[in-house]
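Suppose a colleague, Dr. K., hands you the sequence of a protein chain of 156 amino acids and asks what its three-dimensional shape might be. Before reaching for any lab equipment, you can write down a predicted structure in token form. Begin with the sequence itself:
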Amino acid sequence: MSQSLLEALSPILQHIASVDISAPSTAEELNATLPIESELLRTIKSLVVHGINNGELTPRGEEGMRYGRLSKAVEASLGFSIDAVHMTGPGPGHTHPTGEIDLCFALSGDPRFDGEPPGWVVKAPGSWHVPTVTGGEMAILYFLPEGAIQFGPRPE
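The predicted structure, expressed as tokens, is then:
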């Protein structure tokens, strides 16, 4: 399953590798060019749901926040690490040294990720947050440039 999901993600990786993650309009641009209702993203969601349901994609964690690594930041993933998270609440606070691009799929209810509806959410380099899903259940693919992430409290 993971290999077919990685193959399906190839055009997304090609696209996000070319965006300016620090630009405030990046999430809006991604939502316009790679909309959540597109055939490509419907296919990816189906693969993600299958991987969650069979336990392969999110084998770690506990109810409310299960996660797993799809790829380290390697040449084949164009320098992004890719993590999958199945969430219904808050996760651990962290900083994004090189930014973070999130692809958020609604699974039940009317979920929001950090207040944003399903689709693309982009965190600029140097930003910090406690990732939080409210109003339902989401599957999220996290794309981290260079795999860079620092868990812990908000830096002073």
